[in-house]
Write a structure and sequence with these properties.
502 residues; alpha+beta; BirA Bifunctional Protein, domain 2; 3 domains; nine-stranded mixed sheet; five-stranded mixed sheet; 30 strands; 28% helix; 32% strand; globular; RNA-binding
RNA sequence: CGGGGCAUGGCGCAGUUUGGUAGCGCGCUUCGUUCGGGUCGAAGAGGUCGUCGGUUCAAAUCCGGCUGCCCCGACCA
């Protein structure tokens, strides 16, 4: 691609809307443009990088025996009503009505659609197991998009869905995805940590989240250096310390959804004085949809944390409802837990029969008996991954893409006296199958160098009178700044060999 | 949804306190100059000051409604 034809203006100053470095650089280098809050266009370089990410994901999913499919962005409300999520999920679900008055939803996720597909296609245990995946746009009307692509409302996900006859089959596919996801992140160049997680709005029985550790993350993790325990704060357990008997009480209205009905119960939570409430634990205990604080109402249910001693008031239930904090003791080994911030880039769920039971997705087993299909769902936030990669791979001058995901592999710069040679080199490189971004613009050297640093392609090739006088092409590695002059007739080999090493 | 902030040319900002009809830097166009780290000079183009209404002889500036965007919290892949 010639830069003279690229609709890709780089900007020198940081746009005022950016708060995190990765977002700033993606905007300045011309990878993305914001269209509305949490909604983005991907310019050519951004789209290329996304395609690289998606190619890696396809390879790894195909290697698991996955079949790529594509499910729609718009779903009939009936599917979501059947699973119950139409009623359970509030304003995050994009709802619309078509010209004939039919209710539709925008794809917040695709469990319902896949379950419906399975209901139509799967009859017998002989057709199981199955693995289908797709890469598709999602809409979640997040109450507060932030940090660019890290938390947007419209985003792209890789979703994989497994269908099995039993829990053992699910466990195998779950483990296969667990391993495959690590391979995907390793190939993309993003360090991640898998942690125990809440199942959240997906439902199901078990979940792990793949976390990119960064101070700009909005999840808090608890890690144990003693035994390796690691969990999202939402589910993290810890040894309750001895307390002096001081307690605190907090009152909530718990909103429950039973079928299409909404119910409310007033709950008072009692905690040790120094504890913090873990609302996720409380929500699960109550089987509630959400909580909102209240005060001075007649309590329907008294919940006391299992770390409380000396509570003499009413008790309806004792359970773990406290949030683990930095320095709390690990449940299994007693070492102090530490907290870190992280961005969730992927998650995997054992859905079990949560969707197949509610939506009537069954198969006939070997004994001729209808059974609910056992499902798993596995997702990677593709656009969020791009944002994390920009966050992870940059320096003061700009982005520094790993070869595997760089929108182009080399950045060819033609300076004074080098244009003619550069043009023929551009053709040679492309014929050799190398992705080249060619800066053929009439700009001063400084502009080209700075843009090249900002865009951050792995190799920079400079052709000029000076380089030719020195013996050929200047080759500069973006990552470590190492430069060398390579003779023209050796360049193709040099570049190919270097790329192959990465 | 609660709290805070912002909205002036493509981008970043000043001007608003104290009302008098819009300015700076970058970018863009043309010419010259320079040519390996965002050269230098000259001449240009480009703005219903988010929007609707009010006050006033006069509103970017004062008042009110609305919209959009950002940040903190709640929430969330």
């Amino acid at each position: 691609m010639k830069m003279s034809r690229l609709m890709n203006e780089t900007v020198r100053e940081a746009p005022s809307v950016t708060e995190v470095k990765g977002h700033e650089l993606l905007l300045r280098a011309g990878f993305v443009r914001q269209v509305a809050a949490g909604v983005f266009s991907y310019l050519h370089l951004g789209q290329r990088a996304l395609q690289k990410l998606e190619a890696i994901m396809r390879q790894e999913m195909d290697a698991l025996g996955g079949q790529e499919i594509k499910m729609p962005l718009v779903h009939p409300a009936a599917l979501w009503q059947a699973s119950g999520r139409w009623y359970e999920i509030d304003a995050e679900l994009g709802r619309l009505v078509d010209r004939n008055g039919r209710s539709l939803t925008l794809a917040l996720s695709h469990e319902e659609t896949l379950a419906e597909l399975a209901r139509q296609e799967i009859r017998s245990y002989r057709q199981l197991p199955q693995l289908a995946y797709h890469i598709q746009t999602k809409w979640r009307d997040d109450p507060r998009p932030r940090a660019g692509l890290i938390r947007s409302r419209e985003f792209t996900m890789l979703d994989s869905y497994s269908l099995d006859a039993d829990d053992a089959g699910l466990a195998a596919q779950y483990q296969a995805h667990y391993d495959a996801y690590f391979r995907i992140f390793a190939r993309c160049g993003l360090p991640v940590l898998a942690v125990e997680a809440d199942v959240g709005m997906m439902g199901g029985t078990q979940a792990d989240e793949f976390m990119y550790l960064t101070p700009i993350g909005e999840d808090t993790l608890l890690l144990c250096d003693g035994c390796g325990y690691r969990a999202n704060r939402q589910v993290a357990t810890f040894r309750k310390p001895e307390t002096g008997g001081d307690t605190q009480a907090m009152q909530f209205v718990a909103e429950l959804v039973v079928g299409e009905e909404k119910l409310e119960r007033v709950v008072t939570a009692v905690l040790a004085h120094h504890s913090q409430l873990n609302e996720t634990k409380l929500v699960h205990l109550l089987d509630a949809q959400r909580l909102r604080p209240t005060a001075d109402q007649a309590t329907d249910l008294w919940l006391v944390d299992d770390g409380v001693t000396g509570w003499s008031g009413q008790v309806d239930k004792v359970a773990d409802i406290a949030a683990a904090q930095d320095g709390d003791a690990c449940t299994s080994c007693g070492q102090p837990l530490r907290t870190v911030r992280a961005v969730e880039v992927a998650n995997i769920f054992k859905l079990g029969t949560r969707y197949s039971r509610t939506m009537g997705v069954t198969f006939v087993d070997a004994h001729g008996v209808a059974q609910p299909i056992v499902m798993g769902s596995y997702g990677i936030g593709v656009t969020r991954l791009l944002a994390c990669l920009a966050e992870q791979h940059h320096d003061a001058a700009g982005l520094v893409w790993p070869v595997a995901i760089a929108p182009y592999q080399v950045h060819l710069l033609a300076l004074r006296g080098g244009l003619e040679t550069a043009v023929s080199l551009y053709n040679d490189l492309q014929q050799a199958g190398i992705d080249v971004l060619f800066d053929d613009r009439e700009e001063r050297p400084g502009v080209k160098f700075n843009d090249a640093d900002l865009i951050g392609l792995p190799l920079r090739l400079t052709l000029s009178q000076r380089s030719l006088a020195a013996g050929g092409v200047e080759v500069k590695i973006r990552g470590d700044g190492e430069t060398a002059v390579v003779p023209l007739n050796d360049l193709l080999n040099h570049v190919t060999a270097w790329l192959a090493e990465q």
